């Protein structure tokens, strides 16, 4: 891995390079995605079936879209029972963590008859998109579905593209069934997102769409935002490791590679205050990279977006980590909790030598759907928050309104909204 | 006001009619907005100044964009001191309510060395857009700025279009200064949104943009979503009143009109189980409408989107209210709190005869920036939540990782992510 001295210029160059991977920059596909979305909005199932034949290479009827109970049973027979066991173990941790995120309705009352509050309501229907293709991630199914379950969503609908045989990957089906998905439809791509946003005769309209996908899926989600809610648009995966001379170079190298293997756009960055560690990690990376099955992807992503940066000071290292706002941040330093207090921007923060990033991907409990591409500056991990919404509660007695009613009238009249003023005044006509 | 019998067909017709007002349907302006956004992204201040001359009719230099301390002092001299007093009174309530929305970092630990948690961090820089034009709403400034202040945002930047004299409306300046805005820039429209999203030499890049605006502002916010975060895209204002035979027809009529006066696209709907009340409210609306200063707007919005709907049953009335998912919902019934428990979708819920909607616009404390156009099914009122973000915290000891490390390896290998598996295995090489 290349080793660079960390300077303001290096940081800017890297930031610019990383931002080029943003799903916001793929404008050239926008018009074809918009055409697909519009077609599904207007023609429903007919459009879905045409696109499924065109893009997934399988001719289906509307009746075939819903995954049947017997297909789910068939899937259980095909999946290694060890995977089912590990899915169930992971689910316990994921549910337990997300339970702690629950938010509750509250109110505050004053003895003159004022009640103010905030009512929390789960979303009605949620759509979860699961990509198809060769890479199948049952963990992603759990991470997208379980927060919605914990939130108490009425119905969870999943869509995923079928293979050429018209079947869905069995691990996906098993994970969905274990997590408690209510309905699974065999359709993928921008057309699936449009179906979840507008509904078709077969696929229900949802209130919010979550889940990862390729650029067509990401652009379709952006196109339907406003008609429905969406989660943040996912970019390629990232890891940033902040390490000092106490770090184990072999652990750090292995963790960098765990993200580099995702795809050629993935980014793996080490920022260290130790030049010795920089050299050791670089050497360990070379050793591992040649042993691992996905070495082509790893080498490309490291060439494109992999860096070992040697910082002059700890402060500079931390500032740069906050600038980059990485999806995953490992702090492998002598005092990781102290450093954590200085971290403003990161999706998930892993502290200490045994908190390896894949622990968070599968097992620890926190969500692995995290803000990418610098969006940790303003977005949060997927959570129960994504599947609830709030309503304000306002209840005033006559006794409470009377002493302030003239203030409200004054304010409304300053804004030249006389009907607003009138609606307050009418309640005290007898006083006038 | 027209009185209709509430049926499934009526509801569908009304929903379709209301949804036509959605900012999502103004696609024809999209290309001109995208051009403005792109120009500001590439040419910064130069583009801002050109558009300000073109659209606001005032030639300025980059140095003139920032509102100066002396302009703020001048504004205080021009604003009625009674308005300043009422702004200060309202601020106490707004801050007090939003303080209750604060969320806190938490962690959970187990005695084998596991720490899981969620760190809450305020956003760094927030941009608040304030529309110009004839209608000036200092209340809107308070409602957009104060939640960000309560959240602890580092810097709040406001933009608002200048008049032809190059000045900003004094009430806007006073409200902004009272609320604690750090910098105010004189620029409006899509160009201001682009400046806040990408930054210019003069105007800082922000992490999130909030605030109402016309269709150009709404489309620009949608265009920059992903580069920055935005609040939900505001549509025209709405009120839905659920009332039974105990309601005061004069109060209900006045409240319907308070929203109808906003603009010709505003919607005011009464759903009642009482035919007598329906007739009385209709008569009161006619009386008031002719007395009020904004009667042209009121009559147009009532003709377009005003309805009195007579429900056959209470259940039907409530179901329809949930379908419409109104921005403002008043429950003027014998047992408003019981009915409230059945409300799933509404921006703000006002209970009882003295909780008039304008009380919430100005004074009670809850935010008046609310989801419109059916989006209360999945969006929430603007709140402190909008100005924070979360990071997951994961810390495992060796002792905690060891008993489960083979499960994680198994899961990773099932997903064919061998570098993920490797990053766990490397920590227990001595065991292998």
From TrEMBL, chains A, B:
Pfam families assigned to the protein according to its UniProt record, in alphabetical order: Histidinol_dh
Residues annotated as binding NAD(+): 129, 191, 214
Entry keyword set: Amino-acid biosynthesis, Histidine biosynthesis, Metal-binding, NAD, Oxidoreductase, Zinc
Cofactor binding note: Binds 1 zinc ion per subunit.
Family: Belongs to the histidinol dehydrogenase family.
Family annotation (PANTHER family): HISTIDINE BIOSYNTHESIS TRIFUNCTIONAL PROTEIN, HISTIDINOL DEHYDROGENASE HDH
Protein name: Histidinol dehydrogenase
Source species: Eubacterium oxidoreducens
């Amino acid at each position: 891995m290349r080793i660079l001295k960390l300077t303001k210029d290096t940081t800017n160059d890297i930031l610019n390079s990383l931002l080029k991977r943003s799903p916001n920059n793929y404008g050239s596909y926008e018009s074809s995605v918009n055409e697909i979305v519009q077609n599904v909005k207007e023609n429903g199932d007919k459009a879905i079936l045409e696109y499924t034949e065109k893009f997934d290479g399988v001719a289906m009827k509307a009746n075939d879209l819903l995954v049947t109970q017997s297909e789910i049973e068939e899937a259980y027979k095909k999946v290694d029972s060890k995977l089912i066991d590990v899915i169930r173990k992971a689910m316990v941790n994921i549910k337990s963590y997300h339970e702690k995120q629950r938010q509750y309705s509250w109110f505050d009352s004053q003895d003159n008859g004022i009640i103010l509050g905030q009512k929390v309501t789960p979303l009605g229907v949620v759509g979860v998109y699961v990509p198809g293709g060769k890479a199948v991630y049952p963990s992603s199914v759990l991470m997208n579905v379980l927060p919605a379950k914990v939130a108490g969503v009425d119905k969870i609908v999943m869509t995923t593209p079928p293979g050429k045989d018209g079947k869905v990957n069995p691990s996906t089906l098993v994970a969905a069934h274990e997590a408690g998905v209510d309905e699974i439809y065999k359709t993928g791509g921008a057309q699936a997102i449009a179906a979840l946003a507008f509904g078709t005769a077969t696929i229900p309209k949802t209130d919010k769409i979550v889940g990862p996908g390729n650029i067509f899926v990401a652009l379709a989600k952006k196109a339907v935002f406003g008609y429905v809610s969406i989660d943040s648009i996912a970019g390629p995966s990232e890891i940033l490791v902040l390490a000092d001379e106490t770090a184990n170079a072999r652990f750090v190298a292995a963790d960098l590679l765990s993200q580099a293997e995702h795809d050629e756009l993935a980014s793996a960055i080490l920022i260290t205050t130790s030049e010795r560690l920089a050299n050791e990690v670089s050497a360990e990376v070379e050793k591992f990279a040649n042993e691992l099955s996905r070495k082509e992807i790893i080498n490309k992503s490291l060439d494109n977006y992999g860096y070992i940066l040697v910082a002059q000071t700890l402060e500079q290292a931390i500032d740069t980590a906050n600038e980059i706002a990485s999806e995953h941040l490992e702090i492998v330093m002598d005092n990781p909790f102290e450093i954590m207090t200085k971290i403003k921007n990161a999706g998930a923060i892993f502290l200490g030598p045994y908190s390896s990033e894949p622990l968070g991907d599968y097992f620890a409990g926190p969500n692995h759907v995290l803000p990418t591409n610098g969006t940790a500056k303003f977005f949060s991990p997927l959570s129960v928050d994504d599947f609830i919404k709030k309503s304000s509660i306002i209840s005033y007695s006559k006794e409470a309104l009377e002493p302030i009613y003239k203030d409200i009238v004054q304010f409304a009249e300053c804004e030249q909204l006389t009907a607003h003023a009138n609606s307050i005044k009418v309640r005290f006509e007898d006083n006038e």
